[in-house]
Each structure stands twice: as structure tokens, then as C-alpha cells.
Amino acid sequence: MTEAQATSRTGKRVLLAKPRGYCAGVDRAVQTVEEALKLYGAPIYVRKQIVHNKHVVSTLERQGAIFVEENEEVPEGAIVIFSAHGVAPEVYDQARNRSLRAIDATCPLVTKVHQEARRFAAEDYDILLIGHEGHEEVIGTAGEAPAHVQLVDGPEDADTVVVRDPEKVVWLSQTTLSVDETLETVARLKRRLPMLQSPPSDDICYATSNRQHVVKEIAPDCDVVIVVGSRNSSNSVRLVEVALDAGARAAHLVDYAAEIDDAWLTGAATVGVTSGASVPDDLVMQVLDHLAERGFTDVAEVTTADERLSFALPRELKRGMKEAADRRAQEAAALAATAAGR
Ligand code: SF4
């Protein structure tokens, strides 16, 4: 008998997905803002939401971060942090023109896709970028090679793609898509473009794939799946879709436990719980408390992968932290020398 099939003592149980919540890129981006606030003091400007989560953004705002939409809103010469979703090269140029001190918190796995776009554009490929129109990550990646990139927003778009040379075309993707839907889109593209090349390595990141995989495991046993995450979080929204596709009778996205409607739980014996890659785990714990108050006291964690990846902080920030540490050491040495000379 699997953990997911274990019988609850109360008749009401929770299957808690693992991995869930923060990925390495989100962890790094949030830490970047926190460390910048410690190092330089408030306010610190952040272009776009650092990660797509309401709670994270409002917590950082309380600590002194100011979120803006564009570089023009940042005072000349100030520090600006670019979000985990990445930016187009023109955004770096704008920052330079305003003498902004930019700290780039783009997730290294998004940067990898940017590098692929640059490389294939330099080799004069047509690039079919599978992703959601208007999403910041897609705007940033397309901005690397606008003359070479065409957006393919889902399987239906595959039928209308036009390329210059069907033997010189590659697909890349946004990192937070549905794995299954992307495979379907690629299959449809390949029916029309048999020579279509695949990215050198998966663009959909490990965190997106892992969170979808565990949801697929638990969903068939769930009457309802609660996904903690914000509506503008692509990977969180995908988890709701994956849960439904995998057999959950219902699935809902909530930012906070208080948004859970008791009607969703009526008649439910098994509730699945997971969270998107930009969600701190205390929000999930609040959901478990909320469910426990309604009789769902037996919680079984279902684990399908062990994640250990972490990323170093952006080098601009590390340089600033090192300079500050050196200054402190010099001041301490000067104080010690003065004291010794007394
Ligand atoms: S979801 Fe993936 S690509 Fe996006 S920040 Fe997390 S690790 Fe990076």
C-alpha cells in the first residue's frame, strides 16, 4: 500500500505534496532583496514583482522594498533589482542610461534559456518560443533576439507558425509551463516541421517538473486539491490544471488559508495540498492548520523527489557585501590600532 493510499484514522486526510514551495531561483531572488536591504538600507527598488507571490511582495514592501514597473520610476543613481523572471537586454541599457546600480536576480535557469536564444539567433535559426504571451519571462527571453523569435502560446498556435527555413528551426520554452501541454505543442510543431530541433537541455525547470510530478501522484486519490499560490504565478496556475488533468475531482488556487471555501470540503475525504515555486512554506502550514480545524488532522507527506539545488547570490551583490565586510575589518583594525597606541 502506498503512502497516498494509507487509510486515515479520522476518515479525513491530507496528502501533502513534496517537493512544493520555494525553488532555488525564488529563494535566491528573495534573499537578494533581503540582503540588499541589509547592506544598503531602505528603500531598495525592485523592477516588477521579485517573484510572483502576493505575500512575498507585501512582506518585502514592509521591509523597505519599492516595487516599480519600469526603470523610469527609479530615481537616477539608485539601486534597482531585476526580478527572477529575467529582463530583455534593453532593460540593462535603460538602467545604464539612468546610472542605476542594477542587481540582477534573474534565475540562472532563465538565464540559461536567454543564452540559448542568443546562440541560436547568432546561428540564424528561427526560434519558436513556447510560452504565455505577456509573461515577463517570455518578454525577457524574446528580447534577446526579437528578429528570430516567434511566440507559440499553446498547441493551437503550432498550426500557424511560419518559418524561413524548415531545416533551421529550434524550439525553446518558458521555464514554468505544463510539461504535458508543452510536449503536445512540440508534437504538433514536429508534424509540420519534422526537422525542428529541441533545446540542448530541458527549458522547463526541475522545480516546475517536480511540483507537477508529485501532484500527478496524489491527484487521483484527492477529492479536492488546494494549491497555494498567486494568480499571476504561472507554475502555481499550472499545478491546478495538472491536478484536474490527473484526476482530482476539484482543484483551487488560494493565496491564503482564509480563502478556502468550506463548501469545497463538503463530503471530501482526501484533500491534496501543494504550493507553487514562489510560496513560502508557512502559508502551507497555515492551510494545514485551517484543514485540521475542519477535521483533516491526518497528514501524509508524499515525496517524489529530493531537491538540494541552491544558487549563489548575484555577483554584484556579493561584491557589495565583500566591500562592506572589508570596510568593517579596516575600521576595526584602525580602532584596535588607536586603542593600542593610547
Ligand atoms: S521556477 Fe524554475 S526557473 Fe523559475 S525561479 Fe524557480 S528554479 Fe528558476
TrEMBL record:
Pathway: Isoprenoid biosynthesis; isopentenyl diphosphate biosynthesis via DXP pathway; isopentenyl diphosphate from 1-deoxy-D-xylulose 5-phosphate: step 6/6; Isoprenoid biosynthesis; dimethylallyl diphosphate biosynthesis; dimethylallyl diphosphate from (2E)-4-hydroxy-3-methylbutenyl diphosphate: step 1/1. The keyword Metal-binding applies. It holds the Pfam family LYTB. Its cofactor is [4Fe-4S] cluster. It is an enzyme of class 1 (oxidoreductase). Keywords: 4Fe-4S, Iron, Iron-sulfur, Isoprene biosynthesis, Metal-binding, Oxidoreductase. [4Fe-4S] cluster binds at residues 23, 107, 205. InterPro entries: LytB/IspH. Catalyzes the conversion of 1-hydroxy-2-methyl-2-(E)-butenyl 4-diphosphate (HMBPP) into a mixture of isopentenyl diphosphate (IPP) and dimethylallyl diphosphate (DMAPP). Acts in the terminal step of the DOXP/MEP pathway for isoprenoid precursor biosynthesis. HAMAP family: IspH. This is 4-hydroxy-3-methylbut-2-enyl diphosphate reductase. It comes from Plantactinospora siamensis.
